[in-house]
Design brief:
482 residues; alpha/beta; 3 domains; 12-stranded parallel β-sheet; two-stranded parallel ribbon; 18 helices; 16% strand; globular
Length: 482
Amino acid sequence: MACLLSTPTEILRIIFASLSHSDLAAVCLTHRDLRFPAEPFLYAHIQWTWTDSQHPPIAQFLRTIIRRPDLATYVHNVVLNGDSFDKGTYDPGNERPKIPVTEPVANELVELVAKINVPFAEEWIQKLRAGSMDAFTTLFISQLHDVKRLYLDKNFNRETNLRGMMLRSALCEESTNSHLSSFARLEDVSADSPCLHYNIRRQTQKRNAQDILPVFYLPSVKRIRALVDSPATFAWIGRNPPNPRSLTTLDLTSLREKHLGQVLSVIPRLQKLEWDWHYRWDLRDDCVTDIIDLDRIAAGLSHVKETLTDLTITAGSERSKDDLEDPDVQFSGSFKVFSGLQNLKLLQVPIPFLLGFSPSESKANHLPVALPPSLEWLILTDDFSSNEQWQWEWEQDYLLGVIRSWLQDWKRRTPNLRGFRLLESEMRTIGYQPDMIQALRDLGTQSGIEVQITDMKPRWSGHMLRDPNYDTVPTIPQPMFL
Protein backbone atom coordinates (compact mmCIF):
# COMPACT_ATOMS: atom_id res chain seq x y z
CA MET A 1 0.00 0.00 0.00
CA ALA A 2 2.78 2.42 0.97
CA CYS A 3 4.48 1.82 -2.37
CA LEU A 4 1.26 2.52 -4.27
CA LEU A 5 0.59 5.69 -2.28
CA SER A 6 4.02 7.02 -3.22
CA THR A 7 3.49 6.33 -6.93
CA PRO A 8 3.23 9.51 -9.06
CA THR A 9 -0.32 10.48 -10.00
CA GLU A 10 0.45 10.21 -13.73
CA ILE A 11 1.49 6.58 -13.28
CA LEU A 12 -1.57 5.82 -11.14
CA ARG A 13 -3.83 7.15 -13.89
CA ILE A 14 -2.24 4.82 -16.40
CA ILE A 15 -2.82 1.89 -14.02
CA PHE A 16 -6.40 2.87 -13.17
CA ALA A 17 -7.35 3.33 -16.83
CA SER A 18 -7.15 -0.46 -17.31
CA LEU A 19 -9.16 -1.44 -14.21
CA SER A 20 -12.73 -2.75 -14.23
CA HIS A 21 -15.51 -0.65 -12.79
CA SER A 22 -15.78 -2.81 -9.67
CA ASP A 23 -12.01 -2.61 -9.12
CA LEU A 24 -12.11 1.17 -9.44
CA ALA A 25 -14.85 1.34 -6.83
CA ALA A 26 -12.74 -0.81 -4.50
CA VAL A 27 -9.71 1.45 -5.01
CA CYS A 28 -11.77 4.53 -4.17
CA LEU A 29 -12.83 2.91 -0.90
CA THR A 30 -9.30 1.84 -0.01
CA HIS A 31 -7.63 5.20 0.65
CA ARG A 32 -8.60 8.81 0.06
CA ASP A 33 -5.25 9.54 -1.62
CA LEU A 34 -6.07 6.91 -4.24
CA ARG A 35 -9.62 8.14 -4.69
CA PHE A 36 -8.57 11.39 -6.40
CA PRO A 37 -6.84 9.78 -9.42
CA ALA A 38 -9.35 6.87 -9.58
CA GLU A 39 -12.63 8.80 -9.48
CA PRO A 40 -12.41 10.22 -13.03
CA PHE A 41 -12.32 6.65 -14.37
CA LEU A 42 -15.06 5.45 -12.02
CA TYR A 43 -17.51 8.10 -13.18
CA ALA A 44 -16.43 8.38 -16.83
CA HIS A 45 -18.99 5.80 -18.02
CA ILE A 46 -22.48 5.67 -16.56
CA GLN A 47 -24.78 2.89 -17.77
CA TRP A 48 -28.14 2.43 -16.11
CA THR A 49 -31.22 0.36 -16.89
CA TRP A 50 -34.83 1.22 -16.09
CA THR A 51 -37.48 -1.50 -16.01
CA ASP A 52 -40.47 -2.37 -13.83
CA SER A 53 -38.17 -4.19 -11.43
CA GLN A 54 -34.99 -2.14 -11.79
CA HIS A 55 -34.72 1.58 -11.09
CA PRO A 56 -31.59 3.54 -11.98
CA PRO A 57 -29.83 5.24 -9.04
CA ILE A 58 -30.36 8.64 -10.62
CA ALA A 59 -31.62 10.35 -7.45
CA GLN A 60 -28.64 9.02 -5.52
CA PHE A 61 -26.25 10.37 -8.14
CA LEU A 62 -27.93 13.79 -8.13
CA ARG A 63 -27.62 14.02 -4.35
CA THR A 64 -23.95 13.12 -4.67
CA ILE A 65 -23.15 15.85 -7.18
CA ILE A 66 -25.03 18.41 -5.10
CA ARG A 67 -22.41 17.77 -2.43
CA ARG A 68 -19.55 17.32 -4.90
CA PRO A 69 -20.26 19.05 -8.24
CA ASP A 70 -16.79 18.11 -9.51
CA LEU A 71 -17.89 14.47 -9.91
CA ALA A 72 -20.32 15.47 -12.66
CA THR A 73 -17.42 16.80 -14.73
CA TYR A 74 -15.92 13.30 -14.88
CA VAL A 75 -18.95 11.88 -16.74
CA HIS A 76 -18.18 11.52 -20.45
CA ASN A 77 -20.40 8.65 -21.65
CA VAL A 78 -24.00 8.02 -20.59
CA VAL A 79 -26.05 5.00 -21.66
CA LEU A 80 -29.61 4.81 -20.33
CA ASN A 81 -31.09 1.44 -21.26
CA GLY A 82 -34.61 0.03 -21.16
CA ASP A 83 -37.41 -0.54 -23.66
CA SER A 84 -39.76 -2.73 -21.61
CA PHE A 85 -42.51 -0.10 -21.33
CA ASP A 86 -42.91 0.17 -25.11
CA LYS A 87 -45.92 -1.75 -26.44
CA GLY A 88 -45.49 -0.59 -30.02
CA THR A 89 -48.35 0.97 -31.94
CA TYR A 90 -50.85 -0.58 -29.51
CA ASP A 91 -49.34 1.41 -26.65
CA PRO A 92 -52.06 3.76 -25.37
CA GLY A 93 -49.34 6.35 -24.93
CA ASN A 94 -50.74 7.78 -21.71
CA GLU A 95 -48.81 5.62 -19.25
CA ARG A 96 -46.04 7.49 -17.47
CA PRO A 97 -44.11 5.11 -15.21
CA LYS A 98 -42.67 6.80 -12.12
CA ILE A 99 -39.68 6.19 -9.91
CA PRO A 100 -39.94 6.28 -6.12
CA VAL A 101 -38.66 9.41 -4.39
CA THR A 102 -38.84 10.36 -0.72
CA GLU A 103 -39.68 13.88 0.42
CA PRO A 104 -36.20 14.57 1.91
CA VAL A 105 -34.54 13.57 -1.36
CA ALA A 106 -37.01 15.60 -3.40
CA ASN A 107 -36.35 18.64 -1.21
CA GLU A 108 -32.61 18.44 -1.95
CA LEU A 109 -33.21 18.23 -5.67
CA VAL A 110 -35.71 21.08 -5.59
CA GLU A 111 -32.96 23.33 -4.24
CA LEU A 112 -30.80 22.47 -7.25
CA VAL A 113 -33.64 23.27 -9.67
CA ALA A 114 -34.15 26.60 -7.89
CA LYS A 115 -30.48 27.47 -8.46
CA ILE A 116 -30.81 26.73 -12.17
CA ASN A 117 -33.47 29.45 -12.31
CA VAL A 118 -35.49 28.72 -15.45
CA PRO A 119 -39.05 29.89 -16.27
CA PHE A 120 -40.41 26.35 -16.09
CA ALA A 121 -38.94 25.62 -12.65
CA GLU A 122 -42.34 25.23 -10.99
CA GLU A 123 -43.44 22.53 -13.44
CA TRP A 124 -40.04 20.87 -13.10
CA ILE A 125 -40.32 20.77 -9.31
CA GLN A 126 -43.84 19.37 -9.40
CA LYS A 127 -42.76 16.55 -11.69
CA LEU A 128 -39.69 15.82 -9.58
CA ARG A 129 -41.85 15.37 -6.52
CA ALA A 130 -44.18 13.13 -8.55
CA GLY A 131 -41.32 10.84 -9.61
CA SER A 132 -41.34 11.76 -13.31
CA MET A 133 -38.34 10.26 -15.10
CA ASP A 134 -38.40 13.18 -17.52
CA ALA A 135 -37.81 15.51 -14.57
CA PHE A 136 -34.98 13.38 -13.18
CA THR A 137 -33.15 12.77 -16.46
CA THR A 138 -33.49 16.46 -17.35
CA LEU A 139 -31.85 17.44 -14.08
CA PHE A 140 -29.19 14.76 -14.49
CA ILE A 141 -28.29 15.76 -18.05
CA SER A 142 -28.34 19.47 -17.22
CA GLN A 143 -25.41 18.98 -14.82
CA LEU A 144 -23.13 17.07 -17.22
CA HIS A 145 -20.73 19.80 -18.33
CA ASP A 146 -18.23 17.47 -20.05
CA VAL A 147 -20.44 14.70 -21.44
CA LYS A 148 -19.43 13.51 -24.92
CA ARG A 149 -21.87 10.70 -25.74
CA LEU A 150 -25.50 10.39 -24.67
CA TYR A 151 -27.81 7.46 -25.42
CA LEU A 152 -31.40 7.26 -24.19
CA ASP A 153 -33.43 4.11 -24.81
CA LYS A 154 -37.20 4.05 -25.30
CA ASN A 155 -38.18 3.97 -21.62
CA PHE A 156 -36.42 7.30 -21.14
CA ASN A 157 -38.18 8.94 -24.11
CA ARG A 158 -41.83 8.43 -23.23
CA GLU A 159 -41.85 11.98 -21.87
CA THR A 160 -39.44 14.61 -23.18
CA ASN A 161 -41.17 17.93 -22.57
CA LEU A 162 -38.95 19.09 -19.70
CA ARG A 163 -35.81 17.87 -21.40
CA GLY A 164 -36.75 19.84 -24.48
CA MET A 165 -37.34 23.01 -22.47
CA MET A 166 -34.02 22.59 -20.68
CA LEU A 167 -32.14 22.10 -23.95
CA ARG A 168 -33.82 25.16 -25.45
CA SER A 169 -32.77 27.20 -22.41
CA ALA A 170 -29.20 25.89 -22.58
CA LEU A 171 -28.65 26.00 -26.33
CA CYS A 172 -31.12 28.31 -28.03
CA GLU A 173 -31.55 31.23 -25.64
CA GLU A 174 -29.09 33.81 -24.41
CA SER A 175 -28.24 32.89 -20.84
CA THR A 176 -25.43 33.25 -18.32
CA ASN A 177 -26.82 30.52 -16.09
CA SER A 178 -23.75 28.79 -14.66
CA HIS A 179 -25.88 26.01 -13.16
CA LEU A 180 -26.90 24.74 -16.61
CA SER A 181 -24.49 22.84 -18.83
CA SER A 182 -23.46 24.39 -22.14
CA PHE A 183 -22.85 20.87 -23.55
CA ALA A 184 -19.73 22.21 -25.26
CA ARG A 185 -18.21 18.73 -25.67
CA LEU A 186 -21.31 16.68 -26.50
CA GLU A 187 -20.63 14.95 -29.82
CA ASP A 188 -23.05 12.02 -30.06
CA VAL A 189 -26.75 12.15 -29.18
CA SER A 190 -28.97 9.12 -29.74
CA ALA A 191 -32.58 8.95 -28.59
CA ASP A 192 -34.45 5.72 -29.36
CA SER A 193 -38.04 6.90 -29.14
CA PRO A 194 -41.14 4.70 -29.02
CA CYS A 195 -43.12 4.61 -32.25
CA LEU A 196 -46.17 6.83 -32.60
CA HIS A 197 -49.10 4.89 -31.18
CA TYR A 198 -52.41 4.49 -32.97
CA ASN A 199 -54.73 7.49 -32.92
CA ILE A 200 -52.18 9.69 -31.17
CA ARG A 201 -53.63 12.72 -32.96
CA ARG A 202 -56.93 12.20 -31.12
CA GLN A 203 -55.12 12.55 -27.80
CA THR A 204 -52.73 15.37 -28.60
CA GLN A 205 -51.55 17.58 -31.43
CA LYS A 206 -48.17 18.07 -29.76
CA ARG A 207 -45.17 16.88 -31.76
CA ASN A 208 -41.75 16.11 -30.34
CA ALA A 209 -39.89 18.33 -32.83
CA GLN A 210 -39.62 21.11 -30.23
CA ASP A 211 -37.80 18.68 -27.93
CA ILE A 212 -35.46 17.20 -30.57
CA LEU A 213 -34.45 20.18 -32.71
CA PRO A 214 -32.41 21.90 -29.95
CA VAL A 215 -29.71 19.22 -30.27
CA PHE A 216 -28.82 20.66 -33.69
CA TYR A 217 -27.56 23.72 -31.79
CA LEU A 218 -24.96 21.68 -29.91
CA PRO A 219 -21.63 23.38 -30.69
CA SER A 220 -19.59 20.18 -31.14
CA VAL A 221 -22.18 17.62 -32.24
CA LYS A 222 -20.97 15.07 -34.79
CA ARG A 223 -23.81 12.53 -34.78
CA ILE A 224 -27.56 12.78 -34.13
CA ARG A 225 -30.06 9.93 -34.13
CA ALA A 226 -33.72 10.62 -33.38
CA LEU A 227 -37.38 10.12 -34.29
CA VAL A 228 -38.98 13.41 -35.32
CA ASP A 229 -42.77 13.47 -35.48
CA SER A 230 -43.28 15.72 -38.51
CA PRO A 231 -44.81 19.04 -37.43
CA ALA A 232 -47.46 20.71 -39.54
CA THR A 233 -45.12 23.68 -39.97
CA PHE A 234 -41.38 23.59 -39.44
CA ALA A 235 -39.45 26.26 -37.57
CA TRP A 236 -36.07 26.29 -35.88
CA ILE A 237 -36.10 26.94 -32.15
CA GLY A 238 -33.47 29.66 -31.82
CA ARG A 239 -33.36 33.21 -33.05
CA ASN A 240 -31.37 31.90 -36.02
CA PRO A 241 -31.07 28.44 -37.60
CA PRO A 242 -28.32 26.25 -36.13
CA ASN A 243 -24.91 25.85 -37.72
CA PRO A 244 -23.66 22.38 -36.70
CA ARG A 245 -20.43 22.45 -38.68
CA SER A 246 -19.10 19.28 -37.07
CA LEU A 247 -22.24 17.21 -37.75
CA THR A 248 -21.34 14.46 -40.22
CA THR A 249 -23.78 11.64 -39.36
CA LEU A 250 -27.56 11.95 -39.15
CA ASP A 251 -30.22 9.27 -38.61
CA LEU A 252 -33.83 10.50 -38.80
CA THR A 253 -36.97 8.43 -38.39
CA SER A 254 -40.45 9.60 -39.48
CA LEU A 255 -39.56 13.15 -40.53
CA ARG A 256 -41.19 13.55 -43.93
CA GLU A 257 -39.68 14.98 -47.09
CA LYS A 258 -41.57 18.28 -46.75
CA HIS A 259 -39.22 19.24 -43.91
CA LEU A 260 -36.15 17.19 -44.80
CA GLY A 261 -34.59 19.98 -46.84
CA GLN A 262 -34.90 22.50 -44.01
CA VAL A 263 -32.89 20.18 -41.78
CA LEU A 264 -30.26 19.27 -44.37
CA SER A 265 -29.80 22.90 -45.42
CA VAL A 266 -28.05 23.72 -42.12
CA ILE A 267 -25.64 20.75 -42.20
CA PRO A 268 -22.90 21.80 -44.63
CA ARG A 269 -20.60 18.83 -43.96
CA LEU A 270 -22.98 15.89 -43.70
CA GLN A 271 -21.40 12.65 -44.90
CA LYS A 272 -23.75 9.89 -43.77
CA LEU A 273 -27.55 10.06 -43.77
CA GLU A 274 -30.05 7.40 -42.72
CA TRP A 275 -33.63 8.44 -43.30
CA ASP A 276 -36.85 6.54 -42.65
CA TRP A 277 -39.94 7.46 -44.70
CA HIS A 278 -43.16 6.49 -42.91
CA TYR A 279 -46.89 6.75 -43.58
CA ARG A 280 -49.92 5.67 -41.59
CA TRP A 281 -53.44 6.86 -42.32
CA ASP A 282 -54.22 8.04 -38.76
CA LEU A 283 -51.17 10.35 -38.91
CA ARG A 284 -52.28 11.92 -42.18
CA ASP A 285 -52.20 15.70 -42.49
CA ASP A 286 -50.81 18.25 -44.96
CA CYS A 287 -47.29 16.99 -44.28
CA VAL A 288 -47.82 13.25 -43.75
CA THR A 289 -49.48 11.98 -46.94
CA ASP A 290 -49.45 8.79 -49.00
CA ILE A 291 -47.37 10.46 -51.72
CA ILE A 292 -43.63 9.86 -51.94
CA ASP A 293 -42.50 13.17 -53.42
CA LEU A 294 -39.27 12.29 -55.21
CA ASP A 295 -38.65 15.82 -56.46
CA ARG A 296 -38.90 17.20 -52.93
CA ILE A 297 -36.54 14.48 -51.70
CA ALA A 298 -34.08 15.41 -54.45
CA ALA A 299 -34.34 19.09 -53.52
CA GLY A 300 -33.63 18.25 -49.88
CA LEU A 301 -30.64 16.08 -50.74
CA SER A 302 -29.24 18.80 -53.00
CA HIS A 303 -28.15 20.70 -49.89
CA VAL A 304 -25.59 17.97 -49.15
CA LYS A 305 -24.82 16.83 -52.69
CA GLU A 306 -21.13 17.75 -52.43
CA THR A 307 -20.42 16.08 -49.07
CA LEU A 308 -22.77 13.08 -48.74
CA THR A 309 -20.99 9.74 -49.21
CA ASP A 310 -23.41 7.26 -47.58
CA LEU A 311 -27.20 7.32 -47.95
CA THR A 312 -29.58 4.74 -46.51
CA ILE A 313 -33.34 5.07 -46.98
CA THR A 314 -35.89 2.79 -45.37
CA ALA A 315 -39.57 3.20 -46.08
CA GLY A 316 -42.99 1.74 -45.47
CA SER A 317 -46.68 2.35 -45.09
CA GLU A 318 -48.15 0.87 -41.94
CA ARG A 319 -51.61 -0.57 -41.53
CA SER A 320 -53.75 0.40 -38.57
CA LYS A 321 -55.56 -1.91 -36.17
CA ASP A 322 -58.53 -2.84 -38.33
CA ASP A 323 -56.81 -2.86 -41.72
CA LEU A 324 -55.97 -6.10 -43.52
CA GLU A 325 -53.44 -4.54 -45.89
CA ASP A 326 -50.80 -1.86 -45.70
CA PRO A 327 -52.13 1.35 -47.28
CA ASP A 328 -51.18 2.09 -50.86
CA VAL A 329 -48.74 4.88 -51.61
CA GLN A 330 -47.86 6.61 -54.85
CA PHE A 331 -44.80 8.26 -56.32
CA SER A 332 -44.59 11.81 -57.57
CA GLY A 333 -41.68 13.24 -59.53
CA SER A 334 -38.58 11.88 -61.24
CA PHE A 335 -36.88 8.62 -60.30
CA LYS A 336 -33.50 10.31 -60.92
CA VAL A 337 -33.59 11.55 -57.35
CA PHE A 338 -30.04 10.39 -56.48
CA SER A 339 -28.22 11.17 -59.73
CA GLY A 340 -27.03 14.59 -58.59
CA LEU A 341 -25.22 13.41 -55.44
CA GLN A 342 -21.71 14.11 -56.63
CA ASN A 343 -19.68 12.15 -54.06
CA LEU A 344 -22.09 9.38 -53.07
CA LYS A 345 -20.30 6.08 -52.62
CA LEU A 346 -22.94 3.89 -50.95
CA LEU A 347 -26.66 3.96 -51.69
CA GLN A 348 -29.09 1.65 -49.88
CA VAL A 349 -32.64 2.20 -51.02
CA PRO A 350 -35.93 0.34 -51.55
CA ILE A 351 -36.35 -0.94 -55.11
CA PRO A 352 -39.47 1.23 -55.72
CA PHE A 353 -37.46 4.44 -55.15
CA LEU A 354 -35.56 3.62 -58.36
CA LEU A 355 -37.97 1.47 -60.36
CA GLY A 356 -41.43 1.98 -58.93
CA PHE A 357 -43.63 -0.91 -57.86
CA SER A 358 -43.87 -2.69 -61.20
CA PRO A 359 -42.55 -2.83 -64.78
CA SER A 360 -45.30 -0.46 -65.87
CA GLU A 361 -43.72 2.24 -63.70
CA SER A 362 -40.11 1.35 -64.45
CA LYS A 363 -40.37 1.34 -68.26
CA ALA A 364 -39.92 5.08 -68.22
CA ASN A 365 -36.78 4.74 -66.11
CA HIS A 366 -33.26 3.74 -66.94
CA LEU A 367 -31.44 2.46 -63.85
CA PRO A 368 -27.91 3.68 -64.73
CA VAL A 369 -29.20 7.22 -65.36
CA ALA A 370 -30.78 7.23 -61.89
CA LEU A 371 -27.43 6.54 -60.19
CA PRO A 372 -24.56 8.96 -59.52
CA PRO A 373 -21.28 8.22 -61.38
CA SER A 374 -19.38 8.23 -58.07
CA LEU A 375 -21.31 5.21 -56.74
CA GLU A 376 -19.29 2.27 -55.40
CA TRP A 377 -22.03 0.14 -53.79
CA LEU A 378 -25.73 -0.13 -54.62
CA ILE A 379 -27.88 -1.99 -52.09
CA LEU A 380 -31.52 -2.64 -53.01
CA THR A 381 -34.06 -3.63 -50.36
CA ASP A 382 -37.57 -5.04 -50.57
CA ASP A 383 -39.26 -2.40 -48.41
CA PHE A 384 -42.95 -2.18 -49.45
CA SER A 385 -42.96 -5.87 -50.44
CA SER A 386 -46.00 -6.43 -48.19
CA ASN A 387 -47.99 -3.82 -50.14
CA GLU A 388 -50.44 -5.01 -52.79
CA GLN A 389 -48.76 -2.62 -55.24
CA TRP A 390 -45.49 -4.58 -55.08
CA GLN A 391 -45.26 -6.63 -58.29
CA TRP A 392 -41.59 -7.61 -58.32
CA GLU A 393 -42.30 -11.06 -56.87
CA TRP A 394 -44.11 -11.87 -60.12
CA GLU A 395 -41.80 -9.89 -62.41
CA GLN A 396 -38.43 -11.26 -61.40
CA ASP A 397 -37.31 -11.83 -64.99
CA TYR A 398 -37.94 -8.16 -65.73
CA LEU A 399 -36.09 -7.07 -62.59
CA LEU A 400 -33.17 -9.31 -63.51
CA GLY A 401 -33.11 -7.77 -66.97
CA VAL A 402 -32.94 -4.24 -65.56
CA ILE A 403 -30.02 -5.15 -63.30
CA ARG A 404 -28.28 -7.09 -66.10
CA SER A 405 -28.46 -4.19 -68.56
CA TRP A 406 -26.79 -1.95 -65.96
CA LEU A 407 -24.07 -4.35 -64.77
CA GLN A 408 -23.10 -5.42 -68.28
CA ASP A 409 -22.24 -1.80 -69.04
CA TRP A 410 -21.39 -0.51 -65.55
CA LYS A 411 -18.10 1.15 -66.55
CA ARG A 412 -19.88 3.69 -68.73
CA ARG A 413 -22.36 5.09 -66.18
CA THR A 414 -20.95 4.04 -62.79
CA PRO A 415 -17.21 3.64 -63.40
CA ASN A 416 -16.33 3.45 -59.68
CA LEU A 417 -18.70 0.56 -58.97
CA ARG A 418 -17.36 -2.16 -56.68
CA GLY A 419 -20.44 -4.12 -55.66
CA PHE A 420 -24.18 -4.75 -55.77
CA ARG A 421 -26.24 -6.28 -52.98
CA LEU A 422 -29.86 -7.45 -52.97
CA LEU A 423 -31.35 -7.57 -49.48
CA GLU A 424 -34.38 -9.76 -48.85
CA SER A 425 -36.51 -9.57 -45.72
CA GLU A 426 -36.73 -12.79 -43.70
CA MET A 427 -40.48 -12.16 -43.36
CA ARG A 428 -41.31 -12.45 -47.07
CA THR A 429 -43.57 -15.36 -47.97
CA ILE A 430 -42.45 -15.43 -51.60
CA GLY A 431 -38.78 -14.62 -52.06
CA TYR A 432 -36.49 -14.32 -55.04
CA GLN A 433 -36.34 -17.50 -57.10
CA PRO A 434 -33.17 -19.64 -57.04
CA ASP A 435 -32.75 -19.17 -60.81
CA MET A 436 -32.70 -15.39 -60.42
CA ILE A 437 -30.25 -15.55 -57.51
CA GLN A 438 -27.88 -17.77 -59.48
CA ALA A 439 -28.20 -15.55 -62.55
CA LEU A 440 -27.21 -12.51 -60.47
CA ARG A 441 -24.19 -14.31 -59.07
CA ASP A 442 -23.14 -15.37 -62.56
CA LEU A 443 -23.60 -11.78 -63.69
CA GLY A 444 -21.25 -10.62 -60.94
CA THR A 445 -18.59 -13.08 -62.08
CA GLN A 446 -18.95 -12.01 -65.71
CA SER A 447 -18.85 -8.28 -64.98
CA GLY A 448 -16.12 -8.40 -62.34
CA ILE A 449 -18.42 -6.82 -59.76
CA GLU A 450 -19.06 -8.33 -56.34
CA VAL A 451 -22.71 -9.43 -56.15
CA GLN A 452 -24.37 -10.43 -52.88
CA ILE A 453 -27.87 -11.70 -52.14
CA THR A 454 -28.50 -11.76 -48.40
CA ASP A 455 -31.35 -11.97 -45.93
CA MET A 456 -32.01 -9.12 -43.55
CA LYS A 457 -33.93 -8.86 -40.32
CA PRO A 458 -37.28 -7.12 -40.77
CA ARG A 459 -37.34 -3.40 -40.10
CA TRP A 460 -40.71 -1.72 -39.67
CA SER A 461 -40.86 1.83 -40.88
CA GLY A 462 -41.60 4.30 -38.11
CA HIS A 463 -40.11 1.96 -35.48
CA MET A 464 -36.61 2.62 -34.20
CA LEU A 465 -34.34 -0.35 -33.66
CA ARG A 466 -31.71 -0.12 -30.96
CA ASP A 467 -28.82 2.08 -31.97
CA PRO A 468 -26.14 -0.33 -33.26
CA ASN A 469 -23.42 1.96 -31.89
CA TYR A 470 -24.62 1.08 -28.39
CA ASP A 471 -25.51 -2.57 -28.97
CA THR A 472 -22.11 -3.85 -27.93
CA VAL A 473 -21.54 -1.58 -24.94
CA PRO A 474 -20.56 -3.89 -22.06
CA THR A 475 -22.75 -3.95 -19.00
CA ILE A 476 -21.24 -1.67 -16.40
CA PRO A 477 -22.26 -2.13 -12.77
CA GLN A 478 -24.18 0.74 -11.26
CA PRO A 479 -21.60 3.19 -9.91
CA MET A 480 -20.87 3.51 -6.23
CA PHE A 481 -21.45 7.08 -5.22
CA LEU A 482 -18.82 7.84 -2.66
